[in-house]
Amino acid sequence: MAKLLIFATFLLVSSTCLATPDTKIESYVVYLGAPSADKSPEVLQASHLQKLSSIIPSEEQERVSLTQSYHHAFVGFSAMLTKKEADLLSGHEEVISVFLDRVLELHTTRSWDFLNSESGLRSERLSRRASNDVIIGIIDTGIWPESPSFSDVGMKEVPARWKGVCMEASDFKKTDCNRKLIGARFYSNQAESTQARPPSNSSQPQALGSPRDSVGHGTHTASTAAGSAVTDANYYGLAQGTAKGGSPSSRIAMYKACSLGGCSSSAVLKAIDDAVNDGVDVISISIGMSSIFQSDFLSDPISVGAFHANQRGVLVVCSGGNDGPDPFTVVNTAPWIVTVAASSIDRSFQSNIQLGNGVLFKGCAINFSNLTSSGQYPLVLGSEVAAKYTPVSEASNCYPGSLDADKTEGKIVVCVSTDATVSRRVKKLVAEGARAKGLILIDEAEKSIPFDSGSFAFSQVGTDAGTQILAYINSTKNPTAVVLPTADVKEFKPAPEVAYFSSRGPGGLTEGILKPDIMAPGVSILAASIPSTDAGTVPPGKKPSNFAIKSGTSMACPHVAGAAAFVKSAHRGWSPSMIRSALMTTALTNNNIGKPLTTSLGANANYHDTGAGEISPLRALSPGLVYETTAQDYLQFLCYYGYKEQIIRKISGTNFSCSSANPSPDLISTINYPSISIPRLGKNNPVTVTRTLTNVGPHNSTYAATINPPAGVSVKVSPEKLVFGTRWLKASYQISFSESGAPKGYSYGSVTWSDGAHSVRTGFAVNVL
Length: 769
Fold this sequence. Notes:
Mean pLDDT: 89
GO molecular function: serine-type endopeptidase activity
Largest sheet: 8 strands, mixed
Structural class: alpha/beta
Family: Belongs to the peptidase S8 family.
Number of domains: 4
Low-confidence stretches: 1-19, 121-128, 190-207
Domain Inhibitor I9: 27-107
Protein name: CO(2)-response secreted protease-like
Shape: globular
Radius of gyration: 27 Å
């Protein structure tokens, strides 16, 4: 993906190298805030075109056109502008922000069974409580409608409130939609423009393309969230079982805003705008900006769209990114977004390595080679079969062109990964191209995330096993080995673990909100995909599979979206923040051997790794108490973050006023969020925050607080008991933090409210200065 983006950027640069920064024409998004009830879409579009006419030179009036127009949940447009023109627009009194139309990155049988079994509750409740009236909008690369995961057998008629459409194309008909896949839209980066004329009521601009998925990403995420049950699902014999989504009774609406090269900001914004207006209940977005180039909350298209979706009662769930395990890498961190980390499940795909001395190592990979334990092949280091004039370091890393095919042919090559710029796929192609029999990769980083090498014998081990393999090579004159085909290992322990790639908190934009929010399965997830016909991916004698095994926070995100839809189906009146709170306060913090959650490297995980913990959809049905984060909370957040009241009023469409005369980022911690983050705790400077809980459980309930404080931090709760006479009653408490000998940096703990039947856990992170 990175190479594709780099290549695309090179083409763009080379084609515009003669333009100066001020004259280069690029796509920009112009954001104008909340919609006005007295302005129709036609009036808004005419107004936008007028704005463009006022800044674009008369000799270039053909550029007075809109590539996208937003007028449902929020108001704005995208257009082709120079930087100078964009700067002029940003100074307009109606304009909140103008930002470049950047490319955003695209970030099952066992996973849902694993989540349900870990909850300790009877999963029969799933089918008993579910209903057909919840709609999940997926913003992604499109959908493969023929997949059995999108069968509508047994589903009732489409809800009458649905206003969406099934857009047609040469390869996609209206009949491809049904009572499961109820809507499909597509968008183009260069959509046919609304020309500089009064817009017609007859039609909207049509995008060029199709809702059909040509990548597989969107089909995979859609089926993970809400796929129908498919028996005997598997990937060429692996991960066999019944595949189903988290909310198999929910409807799916696909919004294709992405391609293999990524997703344009303007298209993603338009997809959110349409999804809200169409009538979805939950939006799943496995997309995000790079953690290196994060924009502020009002210049990030996902943040802007999600804010207005929340205003309209739609929950937005986003992947947290794949830039882990370093801190400050999590993206999509606005407090009105549910930000998802990725975890493993209790299934592993093992490709064992048998050495000539009989020692067996359990490697990780997906390969369908025809090698057997009865055969052995010469085992060599990449540095030993280097091409002429190739540095040893390059051959050791399986650089392109680094291996001598005459030396490599018929052998199993051992490569390392000391250079992160060479991906596993490239290393595999290099070894395969050099006529190697197989490849063993020594790399601690992704040792538990299986790489699919097709029919080529590939396996990956960590540094401990790698050291032993290297010692064996050095101990004998003629070392040999064989890499065996993949076997499916179930009930793997410990699980879940935080995926190595999963982006970590704190959030780079503000540490006052604890992000990510929650963790869900994102490693080796089997779900529907497009039938692949790529050479080398289909084992000999097999037909292309209707399923694929993928990893990433992209896969974790639809797990949470499906869980949210499941909770929504049982509690139709709950707001987005109530559903998020239910998922967070009931999340699991222990693995399947009863120990605290760990990272893939074996260290104890913290809340910046896992969020509140691993989702437990069944437990979330009955959380007892919930934290309602209101629209007012989000507006106060923007105020504390530093936005002016005038801007916030445009965003909200209200006469909002900041609650404090001197707003400060330190006040962000006080908004009513289901977790707590204290970014600055100094000596002799205690911090107190207030939280409010709403009773959604039985009448006459009394909850008592239990504190799990970090070492060296004094934590006090007042009052220590909360009494709720009736359902929907609210009660507030204060929690105070003071430093008492804690080491510098972040410490973690929790406060749990319990009535004996429910446990409402709120995690906190405290940064001691």
